[in-house]
Amino acid sequence: MAWLWRAGAKLSLVASAVGGGVTTALIATSDDPETALKLCATVPHRLFSDAFTAANIAFDYEYSLWGLPEGSIERERIKHEVHLRSAQKLQDLCFKNGGIYIKLGQHLGQLEYLVPQEYVQTMRESMLNKCPVSSYEQVCNVFKKELGDTPDKIFSEFDPVPIASASLAQVHVARMHDGQKVAVKVQHTHMTDTAAADHATVELVVNTLHRFFPSFDYRWLIDEISESLPKANFLTEAKNSERCLDNFHKLSPHIANYVYAPKVYWNLSTSKLLTMEFMDGAYVNDVKTIQKLGINLHELSTLVSQTFAEMMFKHGFVHCDPHAANLLVRPLPSSKASIWGRRKPQLILLDHGLYKELDFQTRTNYASLWKALVFADANAIKEYSAKLGAGEDLYALFAGVLTMRPWNRVVDPSMDHLVIQGNESERLELQMYASQYFHQISELLRRLPRVILLMLKTNDCLRAVNNSLLQGSSLETFFIIGKVSSEAVIEAKMLQSKSLLTWLNVKLDKILLEVRLWGMQVALWLLQLRKTLSWSNQPL
Fold first, then answer.
1. pLDDT per residue over 371-381, tens digit each?
2. Residue 293 CB neighbours (<10 A)
3. Which of 418, 423, 353 is nearest to 167 (CA)?
4. What confidence tens digit (pLDDT) does each residue in 381-415 have?
5. What's the CATH code of the domain at 164?
6. What's the rounded Cα separation, in Å, for the pair 247 and 66?
């Protein structure tokens, strides 16, 4: 085991050397000596802390599992304990460092297809609602720098205690002088100053660990972090929210009223402060409150799926951080309760800092792939997986990562072939596949373009939301995805048709598609009717 100690020592030496190098570079190039001095004290400490935690985790795995036969009950028991210990160590590190590290923890909490369940559970339970909080003094400093005065002078009321804190900012409730209640988003102090250094630190630790422990290969995560970080400019975020709503009104008017984003008060917003309309609503995973509002969970799940399907396949401008803390739901303001007390849902999109634009070709290929997945078209799955960067050898794995289903289920012609039940046996099967194909999945994630990695992250977030609403997924969800993706493919073909014959072929494809979708809709209604009848016939 001596080589493990040598590896840990080398990792610490590398951390010290690089920390010194970063410190020297910051002093030599900084335009802000005070900030540079703080960073010079912070960066080496973080780097050493990262290296120590990473080496500690890697050593724990190697030492604890040493000599235990693969597949034995004892090895599985010990591995479970190491997973729990390591997840807790990583969680502690993320909370200690904040910023990018919180984002990293949140993302790991969505990676059910790759990360052990112990990590997923630990990160999900903590990273969305227990982020570090900036002090009121720090908030006042941001206000003075950005707006020239303290919040109690700018607003008639300002609650110094935030109602929410995320990885990069926190939100306070305030009231304007005209009585309007608003939410004020304040960026955490010096978050932007440490972001680049933190990213470089994480990259160094992951790459160094892979060198000493080849089986520990999470290098693809560096690209995901790069793409997953919102641009730390709240004016860009405000523009994104307005563009998002504008897209729905212009490109998806049929559901525009069911999707909302808070109004922005531009005169009280800067790159580090964002003042918005205060929104009352339930978080999308707060099932009990949603039901009290009279909103049907299946209807809400369908709305969430349709909203993001429209963004991905038609708009090409996608909100890529749709975890539960960024999605609120309220009864549609213009709707009235039905005779059964039901209300139509309206989805409120929060935190518009992380958007990705898909070019026409990528958007069309991605829509074509999802159409192929829903209709179990193996040849088309292979073709469009290759076009999106998975290659011709990993298309089946790519389909599995997107749908969380094994290949035999992906190509099963039955209507519910992609539906996830969300039970324990399915979870264990998923973990088995993740462990069995870990290296292939790592290779797939390494070769996929960054934009597709971000679509995978979005997909992971949406799956977690649907799972909290339905304890799995529903047939309606995949019907919506199949419908919207198919419509997007037809629209793309119409735009590219250059001759009358091509145009007629596309029109014929559209008619055939509508017939096919109508058949699926009828089958779906019959299936729902059968479920309703079987439920009503159950003995009390």
1. 999 999 999 99
2. 19
3. 353
4. 999 999 999 998 999 999 998 988 888 889 988 87
5. 3.30.200
6. 56
Residues 348 and 327 sit within 8 Å (Cβ to Cβ): yes
Are both 270 and 310 inside the same structural domain? no
Confidence of residue 325 (pLDDT cuts 50, 70, 90): confident
pTM reported for the whole predicted model: 0.80
According to the model, what pLDDT value does residue 53 have? 86
Q: Distance (Å, rounded) from C-alpha 196 to C-alpha 225?
A: 11
Question: 50, 193, 198, 321: which is the annotated catalytic residue?
Answer: 321
Please state, in angstroms and rounded to a whole number, the distance separating the CA atoms of residues 376 and 417.
8
Measuring CA to CA, which residue among 180, 480, 175, 168 is closest to residue 304? 480
CA–CA separation, 397 vs 406, rounded Å?
8
DSSP state of 295: -
In sequence order, the 6+-apart residues with CB closer than 8 A to the CB of 190 are: 35, 38
261 or 461, greater pLDDT:
261
d(CA 13, CA 10): 5
The alpha helices in 353-392, defined as continuous H runs, are 360-374, 378-387
> CA-to-CA distance for 184 and 169, rounded, in angstroms?
10
Same domain, 428 and 397: yes
Residue 129, classed as helix, strand or coil, is coil
247 and 371 belong to one structural domain: no
Q: Using the 3D structure, point to which of 297, 328, 357 is the last residue of a domain.
A: 357
In three-state secondary structure terms, 393 is coil
Residue 146: CB atoms within 10 A of its CB come to 17
Asked if residue 457 has pLDDT above 90, the reply is: no
Instruction: Verify that 387 and 478 share a domain, yes or no.
Output: yes
Structural contact between residues 63 and 4, judged by C-beta atoms closer than 8 angstroms: yes
The reply to whether 416 belongs to the active site is no
The whole-number pLDDT of residue 501 equals: 73
Residue of 472, 423, 142, 155 lying closest to 297 (CA atoms) = 472
Integer CA distances (angstroms), 48 to 18, 198, 205, 314, in order: 10, 12, 10, 46
Q: What are phi and psi of 347, to 5 degrees?
A: -90, 125
Same domain, 73 and 35: yes
- Tally of structural domains, the chain: 4
Among residues 217, 251, 278, the one where a domain terminates is 278
To the nearest 10°, the Cα dihedral for 314, 318, 324, 325?
Answer: -140
The Cα 199–Cα 8 span in angstroms is 21
Examine the domain organization and report whether 169 and 208 are in the same domain: no
Instruction: Show Cβ contacts of residue 393 under 8 Å, excluding neighbours closer than 6 positions.
Output: none
Look at the block and give the residue holding tokens 């790069």: 226
User: Do 100 and 148 lie in a common domain?
Assistant: no
Domain, as residue range, for 512: 361-536
Q: Which range among 119-123, 196-200, 355-359, 478-482 has the greatest average pLDDT? A: 355-359
Q: What is the mean pLDDT of residues 446-461?
A: 87
Under 8 Å between Cβ of 21 and 201: no
Same domain for 150 and 289, yes or no, is no
pLDDT at 28 over 70: no
Question: For residue 371, what pLDDT is reported?
Answer: 93
